[in-house]
């Protein structure tokens, strides 16, 4: 055998598996056809957050009347900074791979038989294979990508010059984040969403979605919900027909960014022959230890289905690495997710509405950001936290919109994963003044009554 483990795909899922199984003493190779770091580090989470954070700094300065200065983004410089960050993170990961003697094999990995991976005509043998090949944008019949004026999010984020009028198809996570970014760059933004609400994503509370819509509209973003659209022309302008509940409109812009539709990347992998089962959409089925239907083959990250998030991909990689290395570990019950809009969002677990539908009794405690002193000192009093509490006091879910939501939600995920009840959290003190005090205030209200 050449290796104990061959990981096909060097995105966050593949990297986590490779590093963890190597830490546990396995001889590991990782195969990457493009850039180590995959989508998240090179094209998605890291670059988009670097750009959005720059936009937020400018927003913050501009709305702070007591700061005697103005600020504006230098797009070219911001892109240089973004590339520096990507390279810095990648260099760190490459060093860790080196430290654990993980071989990096450049090229497309093909799998035809169990225990073998072919790269550029050479066959490598291995005890275990990990499929970590990710997902990619899907060109849909109504929104055919052309790489010119109908593009995926990454292409849009990397255009040297963004045009003035941008139409974003899809008001999900990527759509909201891109709208935030492009609006901060003074572009005219229209979002078209098929569903009756923005952020039609499981676990995201309708009130949060409405708050985000309100904030984007205040900033000048035009939002169509409940609207079925289709691209009809792409010559000079991109022209859509959009059917709203009350009329049919023509909407046109210079650039359409399509944020909907992704598919698993499995070309070159003969899933049938290696006896790896998939669901109806082609995503590989795995259990909570990242094992596929073939005991010698694992799958992690986007290729293993929803949620399509780096948060999940990384953890699933660790879990796969643990199990390959002989340590039994399972996926956490709760995977939090974060949205980096102008107002941050953090969600974990279920919403009250979802629990009601499942006939589970629960109650909701809401704390507004303006009740938290720290929110005033950072000049961000918009937003709120909703914590959903079961009959026995266990936390079943939380949704937060507002400054710091993406950090606060991790603490709630910790409490949920450890099955802590509000009665347990009541014993805990957080430091003052911090945004996290919003959790303690929710607990206080759940047990006794308001302090703030
Ligand atoms: C705009 C945007 C923003 C996002 N922001 C966030 C965020 O803030 N937080 C978050 O959690 N998630 C975010 N995501 C989602 C996140 O990027 C993905 O879920 C994550 O990158 C999936 O990781 P992965 O390792 O499964 O796949 P990928 O990152 O796609 O990596 C797969 C790798 O496999 C390689 N590959 C594929 N096939 C082969 C082959 N046959 N041989 C060799 N190599 C191969 C590819 O080149 C790629 O490098 C965002 C996505 C988008 C589009």
Structural notes for this entry:
The chain has three domains: 3-136 and 263-324, FAD/NAD(P)-binding domain (3-Layer(bba) Sandwich); 150-260, FAD/NAD(P)-binding domain; 343-447, Enolase-like, domain 1, CATH 3.30.390.30. Helix 3 (45-62) packs across helix 4 and helix 3 packs across helix 6 (173-184). The chain is of the alpha/beta class and 452 residues long. 32% of the residues lie in helices and 24% in strands. The strands form five sheets. Strands 1, 2, 3, 4, 5, 6 and 17 form a seven-stranded mixed sheet that branches. It has a five-stranded parallel sheet with strand order 8-15-9-10-11. 44% of the residues are buried. It starts with a strand and ends in a 5-residue tail after the last helix. Strand 9 (165-169), helix 6 and strand 10 (188-192) form a beta-alpha-beta unit. Bound molecules: flavin-adenine dinucleotide. Flavin-adenine dinucleotide (FAD) is lined by residues 8-14, 31-34, 38-40, 44-45, 48, 108-109, 132-134, 153, 174, 265, 268, 301-302, 308-311, 313. GO terms for molecular function: dihydrolipoyl dehydrogenase (NADH) activity; flavin adenine dinucleotide binding.
């Amino acid at each position: 055998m050449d290796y104990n483990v061959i990981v096909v795909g060097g995105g966050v899922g593949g990297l986590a598996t490779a590093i963890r199984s190597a830490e546990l003493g396995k001889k590991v190779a990782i195969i990457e056809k493009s850039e180590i770091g995959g989508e998240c580090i090179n094209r998605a989470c890291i670059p988009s957050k670097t750009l959005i954070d720059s936009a937020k700094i400018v927003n913050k300065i501009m709305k702070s009347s007591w700061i005697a200065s103005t600020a504006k983004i230098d797009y070219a410089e911001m892109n240089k900074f973004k590339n520096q960050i990507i390279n810095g993170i990648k260099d760190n990961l490459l060093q860790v791979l080196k430290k654990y003697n993980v071989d990096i094999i450049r090229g497309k990995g093909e799998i035809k038989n169990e225990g073998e991976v072919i790269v550029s005509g050479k066959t490598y043998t291995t005890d275990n294979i990990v499929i970590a090949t990710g997902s990619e944008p899907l060109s849909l019949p109504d929104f055919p990508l052309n790489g010119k004026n109908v593009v995926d999010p990454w292409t849009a984020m990397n255009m040297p010059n963004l045009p003035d009028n941008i139409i974003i198809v899809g008001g999900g996570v990527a759509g909201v984040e891109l709208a935030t970014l492009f609006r901060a760059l003074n572009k005219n933004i229209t979002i078209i969403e098929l569903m009756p609400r923005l952020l039609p994503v499981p676990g995201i509370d309708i009130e949060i979605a409405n708050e985000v819509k309100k904030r984007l509209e205040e900033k000048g973003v035009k939002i169509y919900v409940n609207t079925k659209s289709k691209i009809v022309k792409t010559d000079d302008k991109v022209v859509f027909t959009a059917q709203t509940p009350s009329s049919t409109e023509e909407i046109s812009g210079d650039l359409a960014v399509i944020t909907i539709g992704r598919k698993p990347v499995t070309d070159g992998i003969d899933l049938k022959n290696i006896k790896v089962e998939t669901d109806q959409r082609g995503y590989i089925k795995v259990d909570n230890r990242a094992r596929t239907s073939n005991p010698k083959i694992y799958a992690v990250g986007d290729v293993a289905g929803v949620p399509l998030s780096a948060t999940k991909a990384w953890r699933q990689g660790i879990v796969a690495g643990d199990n390959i290395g002989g340590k039994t570990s399972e996926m956490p019950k709760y995977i939090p997710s974060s949205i980096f809009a102008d107002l941050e969002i953090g969600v974990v677990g279920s919403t009250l509405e979802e629990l009601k539908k499942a006939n589970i009794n629960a109650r909701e405690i809401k704390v507004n950001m303006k009740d938290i002193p720290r929110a005033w000192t950072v000049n961000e009093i918009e937003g709120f936290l909703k914590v959903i509490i079961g009959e026995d006091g266990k936390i079943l879910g939380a949704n937060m919109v507002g400054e710091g939501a993406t950090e606060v939600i991790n603490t709630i995920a910790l409490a949920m994963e450890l099955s802590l009840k509000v009665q347990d959290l009541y014993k805990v003190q957080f430091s003052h003044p911090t945004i996290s005090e919003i959790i303690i205030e929710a607990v206080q209200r759940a047990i006794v009554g308001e302090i703030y």
